[in-house]
Amino acid sequence: MKRFLFVQCLLAVWSLILFQGRVTAEEVTDLTQIPTSKIYSAWQDSLEKWADLSTSDQDAQTRAFFDAFKTADVMDRCTRESEGKQDDADLGGFINGKMQYSPLTARELAAILADLQVRMTCHKAITQYLAEHKEAYTPEERDILATALLELSDTCEYPISIRNQIEGGAASMAPQDEILERMKSYAEGPTDEIRFQGLMMISLSCDPRAADLLRSVMEGYRVRKEVPPARFLNIAGATLGPGGYDILLHFLEQTINTPQFMDALLGLVLTRDFRAVDQVIQAYFDGTTGIRDQTSRIEDQALRSYYFKLWHMGRTLEPVLIPALAGEDPERRVEALELLDRSSRYGVAANAAEVFQALQQLIERPDASSSQVLQCQQIIERLQAWEAEKALRNK
């Protein structure tokens, strides 16, 4: 995988190197000359020469190549007029390669973000890189970058979706009062789209105050006796975690026997609070009929969709089901088995190896009852059958 990424970075750079006469690889022995000479043939010859090098040597050669591109070189390429989609893709690949192997400093990046002559492709690539590598920067550097991203979102003329991403990047970089106020303003905005942007920023935020803001937003819906849109419930569940269970439970109770019930249940599941396990079990509505062995062959489209959602929720809860199987709480163990017993009838597990291991270990426990052992064996058989079917489809 790493070798593939290495080659992809090099391929992205090729189209940025222009023909200016032909020079052989032997004539260009110093990699730092390649960006200056801009000779495709020399670079291609070099790539072929590196094919048998170790991964570490390839990395060293690639790093030397990108080291030769200084801030001015990056700025030059980022301010050139686009020649089309392929040119944009190549430029994005170049920025990714530069940032991976020879990253610019926080202040250098801030300067590029502040320049409105820079192409959107560069700003997008830098924003994405920062979102994935923010831990590499000091608090002071992250503050500088957050300010630069926020200012860019305010001054650029990019599509709203791109500006939203840039604002989200700012929220993820540093806790700033200005960013917190913006999140609050959006979250209390006049339309769902504006409120959604506020919640997205909150979900990405590194500000410890953001969780309280999100709880306040959810509390506002509760007081107004309104049910938040499904995507708001999902963000709240995933962001607040177990701390958001109680307020989201209110929306579940409010939506019983309504089309919004499953949306509220998913929000509750995304908290990964173990109490959500019983809520999903209850949603199967089989307490008096016994577990129904439903499959994807259900003819009723609405019913099939309903069970598919429950199966997805069971997969989402696996991170709490697996520890419960190995834990010492007998009630939790029973509930974990009950949910796995149901979800195993509809498809593969999300973490199959871990689920198999936990079930096998439970079978071997001296305190496991015979009914639990049988239940574990049946769950394993079903999941193995699903895995076999999946393997056949993927051939």
From TrEMBL:
Keyword list, A-Z: Signal
Signal peptide: 1-25
Superkingdom as given in the UniProt entry: Bacteria
Name of the protein: HEAT repeat domain-containing protein
Species, as recorded: Eiseniibacteriota bacterium
